[in-house]
Structures are given as C-alpha cells and as structure tokens.
Amino acid sequence: MEPTVLGVLRKACDLVCSGQSLGIIEAISSLRDQTSGRTRDLAYYTVLETAMMGRGDASLAMLAGDDQPESAIELLQATIRRIMSGLH
User: What is the pLDDT of residues 43-85, one digit of tens each?
Assistant: First the structure.
C-alpha cells in the first residue's frame, strides 16, 4: 500500500529531524522509491499551502534547506497538525 500524503510528510519530518535531509524538498524527493510522484507533489503543495497560511509567503530557501533546519521541521510539523485537525 502506498503511503498517504500524511505518511510522506511524517517520513520527511523524520528525515529532516535526523539530519538525513537538509530541507523539505530533499526529504520528500528522497521518498520517490516509496511513493508515487502524485503523492509527493500533493505533499509539496500541502506544505506550501501551510507556509502561505502561516507567514503570508513561502520561502523556497526554507523548502530547499538553505534556511535553518528548525524552520523546515516547524513547517512540516505545522502541516501535519493542520491535516490531522481536518481529520477529527
């Protein structure tokens, strides 16, 4: 069974937290063997949507890992919380 967008975001967060990936784009991209391009694309868009909701702009540097890893982790966790709140 293919991971859901939520599953991809959780795995990406784990990768950034552990230092295996520098940023969100790298973390999600690294999951290409585990999930379809469509699911990864949806994960990217979901993160961008969260970034635009919270800060008013989405920094590509933050998504790429050029910013501090804590920012990427915070954004991934906020996205996960937003999805989870919609499920309840």
Answer: 999 998 888 886 555 556 666 665 677 788 888 999 999 999 8
Q: How far apart are CA 15 and CA 20, in angstroms?
A: 5
**Cβ contacts of 48-51, under 8 Å, gap ≥ 24:** 49/79, 50/75, 50/78, 50/79, 50/82, 51/75
pLDDT tens-digit readout, 32-54: 999 999 999 999 999 988 888 86
Alpha-carbon distance of 10 to 7, in angstroms, equals: 5
Q: For residue 42, what are the CA distances in angstroms to 4, 5, 19, 46?
A: 10, 7, 23, 6
